């Protein structure tokens, strides 16, 4: 067994490290700590943060890739020499239990009839039973039996979710008690709405564990055209969404910060050049620029297949490239904002005072300008996240998104859309993708809303 | 005013050159004309002569940026980049891979795009402003808060979902309108009504939030207080004083997109089978037709720059403090 | 209406936000033709009181239901919002402090006035327009008919305030509320606007509720004075009585602080420290497609000055006269076009700062420091007080570089400027304007300068705070022999602080000399004009 590092894995862990480091420095600054407390004083922000962290956590467990050797006893049977993540391993039963074709959620038979020759050689059109769903039931066609089974199993899962929440509660409680003992008794901060956090966590875990537990016995969200479990696809898509939403920031931020501050601080010809740069980039319609870049990349890959290793690596590089090109097209907005704010700040008297101390250049920018821009950066990053997750779906639809073999909500929608004309409709792939995406985007938007409200100087 | 427009158009030239450079570098830098020829002619038995002929036919046999064999200015002029750019600047987009005149295609397909994009834009703008003003009138009330929650939810739903859900509901289940298709003339209304409705609905969440925050920012300004001290009612204050000032920041974001309405909407047109420029582009992307993509990139940039100029002109109209020089 | 019936009568007016009372049981009456000055420092509740009369308090503020507000025979507390709309602008009108922002920037000024006439008097547009022109003439706007079609940005500050006054008077209200109407204006304009208000009162028998913090203005204009402090009315008296025998201790202190103390300030020995010789600073005016420079804005146009060790030179001028640019030029924050900035280096003798490179300028940066006007933008909001004060010591390598010793010095500096060591961990927004100004002074002191350029350091402060800050500056001068270049638009503080005065107009020094010479025997017409416009209370003392 060995670790395999895909490019995006590496970057996402670097980003994770940077965020942890950032949180650590927040802890040191009294002002920043106060602002973050204020953000979390809103129950909605608390709930959204819990949802976001669960999504990110799932994305992270899907960002460790292991390669199994033939004789490894951890290796799941039949898939030696595959590169798998912990998420794959925990959903292994779904990878293994592939059906032949479409089936609805909790169905015991396939969705469409297939032609079968019975032993007499007669042609028959029958709904074939599913190979792996509802096989433990003696009479799966009986609705009552099915419901009873579902309720019983959901009960067990609910209990597990409750215990899991309890574990988190106790674990977190330990730290809270420790912090309480060491607290500064002179200040009485507002209590954070932890109960809302726990409630959200419990609800989320309840839904997740019910789906997870039942997925051992049913296809909880149905199967797609080639019989693959939709729940598995939706879970795997989380990583793609999170990677695109966060890593793009990693590309976009340094550009926007460096160019925006330079333009606003140095003015003159530097400003002219930077303004020219972003006006030019802005003038190209975003989708077209992305499309053009992705098309070029596709033909490049097609012409040099040898350079790109395995299909996983190719798909990953394509994801990375998409992130890169999204970053290249999305820095202009923030850059313009930072330029304007830098122009405004550099007129202020504390900048003049610093200059009167002989301070200048990078030192002055780092000490006096950058800290006063960070709230804009933070707001932009959280706001962009949801936009990027939504953009992925559209780009995949247009055909310039992630690799068709990569699991993503966009790809799920794109594939399912072709079946829209079917009567009756195959709706579960679409709906699952939309709901998984909606919850993430809604949480991100609500959180962004709160961040914006707290960090906006006008509201204090 | 005229001097200003001429000045701005002159400024547009370096920007368009930059756009050309980016697309050129993307297409020719990574994908050499030889590769293109091979891809176009098919892999089977392409001789160097065939490739050379293909390149000569399209003028792709020149060097990219610098022609060593030429004289004087022709070092630079007689190159693929300058020749291609010159053609684009004359709006001569050449032929697509399927052999059709791109310029003619664009002229024909522009109108269906506009038939959808223009009503969406106008109705959307009015809806957003009206709702935002209403919320400002009832600010900090239950209605305001509920509407803000609704706006965040509307914003968080993928645009694709709106389209698919509406097609299924109104087209497939209720049979109110055809699911997709297009006819010119008066009968087009039944084809455009659903896309327009979806376009407005998909934009209403973010639009209302944005305009509301603009109006709320204005409402704390001194002139609003003076207007109230005059004895104006809240509605008069909103419509007479606030709206006119709030329009200024709205103009910045809105006017610039007006020219680009010609480009149509990619996903809307492709879902509803509208023969506009959006679906034209998407077909080109999916069939990897570089000439069309290049033409659309250039056209998009030109329209964007026109939009920037229009924004400035609109500003000088609405804001007496701005004089164009 | 009889003279003996009050126009406005407040009884037990209380205004609260949540549980806190911001205005506490205010009671007073105003009579026709009376100018009633409501005086107080920021946060005293005087503006809230006036907004309560208009029933225009911001959301979240409520008037106590037991309060009484009567306008002549109308009980304003009992009016519905709709009824109030027929009263506002018609029977009570209001003008505000900031004429720049109080007019709608995108509507023609004439139209903004005509709007009131159409609304309340039901005039047709043509009649309304004729009436507006008439009003404009009355309030002294030249070319009234043409100005009707102008937009606010095309008018000067004084003219905008005249438009506001015309708008307020359009429907001939009984009561005019003027909320600090002259604070944002230069002294010469202030005097004109005050005269206009007095004249209108005389002609129309108007009652004016005049809200101000400026005792000089009160002395010139008021008939009756009421002083508010922290939401309470502490003193109410006729003007003469008020200025002769103030009763409340707070009022006494307020009067003492707002009237300049004339002090004879003589330097024992005079040793020149800084000399400006024919200093010129130009800013390019660019135009056209290629932003070619077409002209120079001569911000500073040949200024010659001299400051001695331990001396305060007051540089007086109205906004736009170029006085702040001189300070920036000395600090090398702007480049000089011509002339010399000579600084006496103890070792090297005279050095021309204007010709130095930034690196060679560094040793002199610790000798010349600056404090600013706006206490809100002078301190970086993301730094603690400790970081702010220590910044200069670290950057310019002044004193010990050991963090612990530096911290001890910061403690000392804080005590010196009247703050406490425990303040050092706080952020600027936790302090009041006066305290911030003290932090700014400590920051400048930290590098042990010889000259401090004070760029309007007190103009954003309340009078009592202003007096304290001036006193602090004076003490520091006595103790360390500091020199000050004191840039100000306010003539009244000059005798309190300065040894010498220079008066500036349009980039040039028009008159300079000792305080007694310039203020006592002004030669230049501009100096005389400035002195004439000063409130008579100030004039009496300093002349």
UniProtKB/TrEMBL annotation, chain A:
UniProt-listed InterPro entries: BP-dependent_transpt_permease, MetI-like, MetI-like_sf
Signal peptide: none
Coiled coil: none
Keyword Membrane part of the UniProt annotation: yes
SUPFAM superfamilies from the UniProt entry: MetI-like
Principal place of residence: membrane
Domain of life: Bacteria
Record CDD domains: TM_PBP2
UniProt domain ABC transmembrane type-1: residue ranges: 238-448
Localization (cell): Cell membrane
Membrane topology note: Multi-pass membrane protein
Entry keywords, A to Z: Cell membrane, Membrane, Peptide transport, Protein transport, Transmembrane, Transmembrane helix, Transport
Transmembrane segments: 6-26, 38-58, 156-175, 196-218, 238-261, 273-297, 317-338, 373-398, 426-448
Assigned protein family: Belongs to the binding-protein-dependent transport system permease family.
Protein name: ABC transporter permease
UniProtKB/TrEMBL annotation, chain B:
Gene3D superfamilies: MetI-like
Topological category with respect to the lipid bilayer: Multi-pass membrane protein
Domain ABC transmembrane type-1: 110-314
InterPro entries, per the entry: BPD_transp_1_N, MetI-like, MetI-like_sf
Regions crossing the membrane: 9-30, 114-137, 149-171, 191-211, 248-272, 292-318
Similarity section: Belongs to the binding-protein-dependent transport system permease family.
Protein's recorded name: ABC transporter permease
Subcellular location: Cell membrane
From TrEMBL, chain C:
Domain of life, per lineage: Bacteria
Molecular function terms from GO: ATP binding
SUPFAM superfamilies in alphabetical order: P-loop containing nucleoside triphosphate hydrolases (SSF52540)
InterPro entries tied to this protein: AAA+_ATPase (IPR003593), ABC_transp_ATP-bind (IPR050319), ABC_transporter-like_ATP-bd (IPR003439), ABC_transporter-like_CS (IPR017871), Oligopep_ABC_C (IPR013563), P-loop_NTPase (IPR027417)
Residue intervals of the ABC transporter domain: 8-255, 274-531
Leader peptide range in chain numbering: none
Keyword tags: ATP-binding, Nucleotide-binding, Transport
PANTHER family: D,D-DIPEPTIDE TRANSPORT ATP-BINDING PROTEIN DDPF-RELATED, TRANSPORT ATP-BINDING PROTEIN
Family the UniProt entry places it in: Belongs to the ABC transporter superfamily.
Protein name, UniProt field: ABC transporter ATP-binding protein
Organism: Thiomicrorhabdus heinhorstiae
């Amino acid at each position: 067994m060995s670790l395999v590092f895909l490019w995006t894995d590496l970057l996402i862990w670097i980003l994770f490290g940077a965020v942890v480091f950032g949180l650590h420095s927040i802890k040191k600054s009294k002002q920043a700590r106060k602002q973050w407390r204020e953000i979390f004083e809103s129950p909605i922000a608390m709930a959204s943060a819990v949802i976001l962290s669960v999504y990110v956590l799932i994305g992270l467990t899907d960002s460790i890739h292991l390669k199994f050797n033939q004789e490894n006893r951890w290796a799941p049977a039949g898939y030696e020499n595959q590169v798998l993540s912990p998420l794959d391993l925990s959903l292994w039963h779904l990878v293994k239990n592939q059906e032949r074709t479409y089936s609805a959620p909790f169905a015991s038979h396939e969705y469409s009839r297939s032609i079968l020759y019975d032993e007499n050689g007669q042609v028959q059109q029958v709904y074939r039973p599913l190979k792996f769903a509802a096989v433990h039931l003696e009479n799966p066609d009986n609705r009552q039996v099915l419901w009873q089974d579902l309720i019983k199993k959901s009960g067990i899962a609910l209990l597990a979710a409750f215990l899991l929440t309890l574990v988190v509660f106790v674990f977190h409680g330990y730290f809270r008690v420790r912090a309480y003992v060491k607290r500064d008794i002179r200040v009485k901060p507002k209590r954070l709405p932890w109960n809302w956090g726990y409630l959200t966590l419990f609800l989320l875990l309840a839904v997740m564990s019910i789906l997870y537990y039942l997925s051992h016995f049913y296809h909880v969200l149905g199967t797609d055209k080639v019989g693959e479990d939709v729940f598995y696809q939706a879970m795997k898509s989380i990583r793609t969404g999170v990677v695109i939403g966060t890593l793009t920031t990693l590309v976009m931020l340094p550009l926007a910060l460096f160019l925006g501050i330079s333009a606003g601080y140095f003015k003159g010809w530097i400003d002219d050049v930077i303004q020219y740069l972003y006006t030019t980039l802005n003038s190209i319609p975003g989708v077209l620029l992305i499309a053009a870049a992705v098309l070029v990349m596709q033909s490049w890959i097609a012409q040099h297949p040898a350079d790109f290793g395995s299909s996983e690596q190719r798909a990953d590089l394509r994801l990375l490239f998409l992130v890169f090109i999204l970053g290249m097209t999305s820095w202009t907005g923030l850059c313009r904002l930072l330029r304007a704010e830098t122009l405004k700040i550099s007129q202020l008297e504390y900048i003049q005072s610093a200059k009167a101390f002989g301070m200048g250049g990078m030192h002055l920018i780092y000490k006096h300008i950058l800290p006063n821009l960070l709230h804009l950066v933070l707001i932009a990053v959280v706001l962009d996240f949801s936009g990027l997750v939504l953009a992925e779906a559209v780009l995949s639809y247009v055909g310039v998104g992630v690799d068709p073999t990569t699991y993503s909500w966009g790809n799920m929608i794109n594939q399912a859309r072709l079946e829209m004309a079917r009567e009756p409709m195959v709706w579960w792939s679409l709906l699952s993708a939309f709901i998984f995406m909606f919850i993430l985007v809604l949480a991100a938007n609500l959180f962004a809303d709160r961040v914006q409200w707290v960090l906006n100087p006008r509201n204090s | 005013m005229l001097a200003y427009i001429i000045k701005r158009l002159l400024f547009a030239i370096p920007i368009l050159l930059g756009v050309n450079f980016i697309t050129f570098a993307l297409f020719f830098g990574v994908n050499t004309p030889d590769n293109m020829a091979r891809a176009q002619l098919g892999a089977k038995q392409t001789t160097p002569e065939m490739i050379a002929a293909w390149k000569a036919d399209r003028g792709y046999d020149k060097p990219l940026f610098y022609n060593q064999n030429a004289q004087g200015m022709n070092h630079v002029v007689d190159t693929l980049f300058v020749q291609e750019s010159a053609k684009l600047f004359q709006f001569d987009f050449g032929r697509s891979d399927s052999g059709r005149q791109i310029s003619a295609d664009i002229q024909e397909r522009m109108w269906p795009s506009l038939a959808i994009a223009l009503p969406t834009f106008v109705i959307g703008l009015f809806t957003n402003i009206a709702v935002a003003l209403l919320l400002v009138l009832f600010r900090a009330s239950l209605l305001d808060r509920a509407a803000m929650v609704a706006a965040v939810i509307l914003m968080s739903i993928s645009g694709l979902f709106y389209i698919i859900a509406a097609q299924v509901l109104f087209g497939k289940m209720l049979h109110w309108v055809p699911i997709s298709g297009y006819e010119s003339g008066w009968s087009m209304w039944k084809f455009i009504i659903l896309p327009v409705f979806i376009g407005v609905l998909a934009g209403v969440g973010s639009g209302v939030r944005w305009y509301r925050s603009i109006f709320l920012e204005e409402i704390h300004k001194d002139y609003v207080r003076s207007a109230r001290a005059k004895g104006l009612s809240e509605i008069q204050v909103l419509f007479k004083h606030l709206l006119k000032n709030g329009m200024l920041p709205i103009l910045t974001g809105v006017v610039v997109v007006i020219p680009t309405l010609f480009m149509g909407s990619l996903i809307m047109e492709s879902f509803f089978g509208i023969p506009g420029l959006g679906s034209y582009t998407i077909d080109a992307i999916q069939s990897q037709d570089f000439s069309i993509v290049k033409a659309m990139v250039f056209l998009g940039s030109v329209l964007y720059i026109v939009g920037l100029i229009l924004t400035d002109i609109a500003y000088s109209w609405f804001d007496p403090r701005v004089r164009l020089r | 209406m009889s003279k003996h019936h009050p126009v406005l009568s407040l009884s037990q007016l209380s205004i609260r936000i949540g549980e806190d009372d911001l205005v506490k049981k205010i009671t007073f009456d105003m009579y026709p033709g009376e100018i009633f000055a409501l005086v107080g420092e920021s946060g005293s509740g005087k503006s809230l009181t006036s907004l309560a009369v208009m029933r225009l308090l911001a959301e979240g503020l409520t008037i106590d239901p037991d309060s009484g507000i009567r306008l002549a025979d109308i009980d304003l507390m009992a009016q519905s919002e709709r009824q109030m709309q027929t009263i506002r602008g018609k029977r009570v009108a209001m003008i505000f402090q900031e004429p720049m922002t109080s007019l709608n920037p995108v509507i023609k000024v004439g139209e903004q006035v005509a709007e009131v006439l159409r609304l309340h008097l039901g005039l047709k547009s043509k009649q309304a327009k004729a009436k507006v022109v008439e009003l404009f003439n009355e309030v002294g706007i030249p070319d009234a008919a043409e100005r009707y079609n102008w937009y606010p940005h095309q008018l000067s500050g004084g003219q905008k305030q005249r438009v506001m006054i015309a708008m307020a008077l359009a429907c001939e209200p009984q009561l005019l509320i003027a909320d600090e109407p002259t604070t944002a204006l230069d002294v010469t304009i202030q005097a004109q606007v005050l005269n206009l208000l007095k004249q209108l009162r005389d002609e129309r028998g108007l009652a004016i509720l005049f809200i101000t913090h400026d005792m000089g203005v009160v002395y010139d204009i008021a008939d009756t004075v009421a002083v508010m402090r922290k939401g309470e009315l502490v003193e109410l008296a006729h003007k003469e009585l008020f200025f002769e025998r103030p009763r409340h201790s707070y009022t006494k202190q307020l009067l003492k602080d707002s009237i300049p103390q004339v002090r004879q300030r003589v330097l024992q020995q005079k040793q020149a420290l800084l000399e400006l010789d024919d200093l010129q600073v130009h800013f390019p005016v660019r135009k056209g497609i290629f932003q070619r420079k077409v002209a120079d804005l001569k911000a500073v146009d040949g200024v010659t000055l001299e400051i001695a060790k331990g001396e305060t030179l007051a540089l007086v001028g109205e906004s736009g006269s170029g006085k702040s640019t001189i300070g920036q030029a000395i600090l090398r924050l702007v480049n000089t076009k011509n002339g010399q900035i000579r600084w006496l280096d103890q070792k090297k003798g005279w050095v021309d700062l204007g010709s130095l490179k930034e690196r060679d300028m560094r040793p002199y940066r610790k000798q010349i420091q600056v404090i600013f006007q706006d206490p809100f933008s002078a301190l970086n909001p993301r730094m603690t007080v400790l970081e702010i004060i220590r910044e200069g010591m670290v950057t310019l390598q002044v004193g010990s570089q050991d963090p612990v010793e530096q911290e001890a010095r910061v403690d000392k500096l804080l005590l010196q400027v009247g703050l406490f060591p425990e303040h050092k961990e706080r952020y600027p927004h936790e302090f009041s304007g006066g305290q911030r100004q003290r932090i700014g002074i400590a920051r400048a002191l930290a590098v042990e300068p010889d000259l401090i350029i004070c760029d309007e350091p007190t103009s954003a402060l309340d009078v009592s705070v202003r007096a304290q800050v001036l006193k602090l500056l004076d003490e520091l001068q006595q103790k360390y022999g500091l020199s000050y270049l004191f840039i100000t638009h306010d003539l009244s503080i000059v005798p309190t602080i300065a040894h010498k005065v220079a008066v500036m107009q349009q980039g040039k020094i028009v008159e300079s000399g000792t305080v007694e010479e310039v203020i006592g025997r002004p030669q230049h017409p501009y100096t005389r004009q400035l002195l004439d416009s000063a409130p008579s209370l100030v004039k009496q003392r300093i002349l």
